[in-house]
Amino acid sequence: MLNIFLISLNPVMFLSEGSSIGLNLDILETGIVNIAILGTGVFILGRDFLSSALSARQERVIAVIQESEDNLNAARLRLSEAEKQLSQTQILISEIKKESELTAQKVQAIVLKQGKLDIEKIVANSRIAIAAIEVQIRQQIQTYITNLLLKRVTGQLEKQLTLDIQSSIIDKDISNLGGSVWL
């Protein structure tokens, strides 16, 4: 089987029975003349067809290459434009970042300043409220002490004043007023 396979691949070479490769010199048996005639006929007769097919193929390949080069140039141009836009965008982004940082710092300063003002107002209002409460508490304490003293004095007077003392005080007050007493 291997022998048939090798002969079909190369009619000039064959595998002898001793498992070595040998050269078949019988020209008629190998068909070399037929192959040469066939190859010459194909070459002479197929040359025009083959050359026209190859020319058409070459033209198509050249057209595809030219189109690819045009596409490549267009892609390079778009890439260049995209890189320019990217650099402009990056510049714009960096400017926006700087502006946003400045704005954030300004806002932070304003918020801190307003916070300080609010705290100062709260402290001032608290001091005023505390002072008002202190005054109110002092007044309440004075009123309480006054009422307490009046109760003590009234209680002591009620204990110490007898009817005779009360009559003499009333008579004295009436006489000071310029009136007379009716008894």
Keyword list:
85% helix; two-stranded antiparallel sheet; mainly alpha
Sequence-ordered SSE layout with sheet pairings:
Layout: H1 2-9, E1 13-15, E2 21-23, H2 27-30, H3 32-160, H4 163-177
Antiparallel strand pairs: 1-2
Architecture overview:
This protein is mostly helical and 183 residues long. It has a domain at 1-30. The chain has helices at residues 2-9, 27-30, 32-160, 163-177; strands spanning 13-15, 21-23. A two-stranded antiparallel ribbon has the order 1-2. The chain is rod-shaped. The termini are far apart.
Radius of gyration: 65 Å
Number of helices: 4
> How would a crystallographer describe the biggest sheet?
2 strands, antiparallel
Mean pLDDT: 84
